[in-house]
Amino acid sequence: xxxxxxxxxxxxxxxxxxxxxxxxxxxxxxxxxxxxxxxxxxxxxxxxxxxxxxxxxxxxxxxxxxxxxxxxxxxxxxxxxxxxxxxxxxxxxxxxxxxxxxxxxxxxxxxxxxxxxxxxxxxxxxxxxxxxxxxxxxxxxxxxxxxxxxxxxxxxxx
Length: 158
Fold this sequence. Notes:
Layout: H1 2-25, H2 31-52, H3 66-86, H4 89-92, E1 95-99, E2 105-109, H5 110-134, H6 144-149
Antiparallel strand pairs: 1-2
Helix pairs in contact: 1-2, 1-3, 1-5, 2-3, 2-5
């Protein structure tokens, strides 16, 4: 399982970097795309804070600049890689107790948290891509298969 998690977090780093680059390059990105990207990287950070049992530095829906997003995304990716590279199967099944953004307490396994983080970003990156395309620009292609093949996935014609 840790090999699969390593690949998922390699994808997370790659996809966050590609979204950042596409928003920098966009001529007229819809304003909410930055809000969504900030949410993606902030949520990654919030989950890291929960794993560590610490208070997060940012809220789950923060106001961040593109450069702040890129910096936080890089830190997040480094920390997730470190976790995935060092955790064993028993550690993945260990429970982590935390409070969600509404203050409700939960306990989830590290495995489930890591899978959630990897999947959560894909959802919002898709929203960003759709908004960038609707704004007339070319969105980042962040499909996992494009990463592992080393080439973009097929795109639909304009």
